[in-house]
Amino acid sequence: MTRGKQKIEAQKRNAEKNQKSKGSQLEARAVGLKVICPICKVQLANQNQLADHYASKHPKEKPPAESS
């Protein structure tokens, strides 16, 4: 019954392959979020989002200048 054995082995290989590809999204998120709001410590992806954040959450404050 080689077909049954081959089927079981293929299922095991697929399960291992699928299990290895899963990872933590927190690590990917930490890499993508680079700008931090100095007032409320919210992490944002870029300077444009920081400007939008200031406009909506801190309207009386001016956004900090871009530091590169």
UniProtKB/TrEMBL annotation:
SUPFAM superfamilies: Expressed protein At2g23090/F21P24.15. One of its GO terms (cellular component) is nucleus. It holds the Pfam family SERF-like_N. Keywords: Cytoplasm, Metal-binding, Nucleus, Zinc, Zinc-finger. Residues 35-63 form the C2H2-type domain. GO terms for molecular function: zinc ion binding. It is found in: Cytoplasm; Nucleus. Residues 1-19 have a biased composition (Basic and acidic residues). Residues 1-27 are annotated as: Disordered. Gene3D superfamilies: At2g23090-like (4.10.1050.10). InterPro entries: MBS1/2-like (IPR045230), SERF-like_N (IPR007513), ZNF706/At2g23090_sf (IPR026939), Znf_C2H2_type (IPR013087). This is C2H2-type domain-containing protein. It comes from Phaseolus coccineus (Scarlet runner bean).
